[in-house]
Amino acid sequence: MTSPTLYRATILHTPTNPFTDADALHAHDDGGLLVDGGVIRAAGPYADLRAAHPDVPVTDLRGGLLLPGFIDTHVHYPQVRVIGGLGLPLLDWLDQCALPEEARMADVAYARGVARDFVGGLLEAGTTTALVFGSHIAGAVDVFFEEATRRGLRAVSGLVVSDRLLRDELHTTPERAYAEGRALTLRWHGVGRNLYAVTPRFSLSASEGILEACAALMREFPDVRFTSHINENGREIEVVRDLFPGARDYLDTYEKAGLVGRRSVLAHNVWPSDRELGVMATHHCTAAHCPCSNSALGSGFFPLRRHLDAGVPVSLGSDVGGGTGFSLLKEGLQAHFMQNLMPDGVPLTPTHLLYLATLAGARALDLDGQTGSFEVGKAFDAVHLSPAPGTPLDAVFRHASSPERALAAAFATGTPADVAGVWIGGEHVHARSEVQAV
Ligand SMILES: Nc1nc2[nH]cnc2c(=O)[nH]1
Ligand SMILES: [Zn+2]
């Protein structure tokens, strides 16, 4: 475990939900966090903490912003190398870009390289916890958890299962899905920072039999998480309707199997019915909003206001590789743009964006007792944004009239190049390599 450290920085976090609490943003120009054993033991003005703990070594992070580590609630590990397949709608993009690459994960050596690229990409973007769509290949899921463990990421992931309409190499059977999922759960769930997520790809590629196998796993391991896709694209929704003639709607395909609960995260939900929103709210099931992906694949505008009015929790996802990169700053900005462009959009402030990128994700994963904000008793999961001198963001930071103004600029123009350091459970898991001036 790490020794006690006092972090000094401009600190911002949202210990509550700004969609329901006008005072959700907590900002300290010269704040302090006392961290011991990876856990935040005290928080407040730096001067007060220094006076109370005069002998503890100080890590001075002034000149930037210290935020809770970002929480990406929808991202695909095998797709990191196919980011950028722009201009195709979902089902064509899957056929032409994503699925051929996902089939390559049968080669474990290849999967190892992909896992390194993927976990490195998350950490460099400031993501400290991620709900990760694993691979259809069990060996490649092991490789992912090994790499997440090596780098210290908080990973929630599992075997992706499908038994129709993808490619033969990616199909399994309900029996094998259950057996491999069970073995992976026993190997990884609750081991270190890892948690297991039962993950049927989407109802289009999942028979009732395989959804039932997923449900059997969840009954056996009631604290695993559940994730899948829903209501992303018009054509996809039509096919699901044809495949499940007895279902009331898309959500019903998961609901009938007993897969919708407070530890369920459904990605996209661009085209929900009122019934679906009502059921998601009743079960505290989260919608993971992936605005860059929705734009890149032309999926549509996420009806955030309808989700909020119905009481459905919403978090953010990068959806790499349908999405365009790992930065949740960029996802926040794109969410803001899209709401601005909608007739009934929700005006999103920097405080909303910070919440969506942090505590909302922790709540979606039922990890808000451990991460998502800087409250005493939580793990020290943090991202230090400190732009390189001479960049426009550096100029804004140096002249910002308030921490909130600097936060707005971080969402507007920040990138992984501005992530100077990342901590998970008090461990310094990423430090930006400084480019030498020539
Ligand atoms: N965006 C996205 N949607 C999906 N629906 C089923 N699989 C996928 C995927 O890989 N990406
Ligand atoms: Zn996805």
Automatic annotation (TrEMBL):
Cofactor: Zn(2+)
Gene Ontology biological process terms from the UniProt entry: guanine catabolic process
Lineage top rank: taxon: Bacteria
Molecular functions per Gene Ontology: guanine deaminase activity; zinc ion binding
Domain Amidohydrolase-related, residue spans: 66-428
Principal EC category: hydrolase
PANTHER family with a match to the protein in the record: GUANINE DEAMINASE
Protein name: Guanine deaminase
Organism, scientific name: Deinococcus metalli
